[in-house]
Amino acid sequence: xxxxxxxxxxxxxxxIDVLVGALSGRQPRFSQxxxxxxxxxxxxxxxxxxxxxxxxxxxxxxxxxxxxxxxxIAYLQRAQILTMLRLSGGSSSDFVDEAExxxxxxxxxNSKLIEVxxxxxxxxxxxxxxxxxxxSSPMNRMSVREVCRAVESxxxxxxxxxxxxxxxxxxxxxxxAAEQGSxxxxxxxxxxxxxALGAGYGWLDALTEAVKSFIRVKALxxx
Length: 223
Fold this sequence. Notes:
Number of helices: 10
Structural class: mainly alpha
Shape: globular
Largest sheet: none
Radius of gyration: 17 Å
Low-confidence stretches: 1-7, 32-45, 98-108
Helix content: 55-70%
Number of strands: 0
Number of domains: 1
């Protein structure tokens, strides 16, 4: 009988714990196990795990020259600032929406990609505003369906692979806003499971941070 590798078993338990936290709205119970050196993939690791749920660096810098373009980066940067503001105890009314974040870029970019970011941002901004529109509000149903349709397009698979942090943000927002048991809800759950179980060690920390931050954001939004 094949013996189980204890490191692999511990890792799988940790990933499942993160997933359960994301889907149930509770903080993960376990700390990430130290299985490999943190510099295993070194600075050449190509994936960019930054997202509106992380505070390591501004997205304006992290996503410079990315396929999201000026318009997409403006939405994502605004989402990041609002996230950090609300998690620090501030209100959306304290946020000054400067022109560099609110004005759309004029360059041509993948319309499906921009649609995903824009529709996800509409839901997210509503949840973080004061008073908030809960993710689960029926007001978000149309946007959820549009996000789902846009994510289904295989045209952006390479982008999501390169920017897993942005993708997990999209999936968490879509899952939280979808009606439980709906086609969209099941679709986002399946993708969350796939992404979490396939997360490489180069961005597993970022995935955990994103889930923990989103759970807090969702609680502030009232569901």
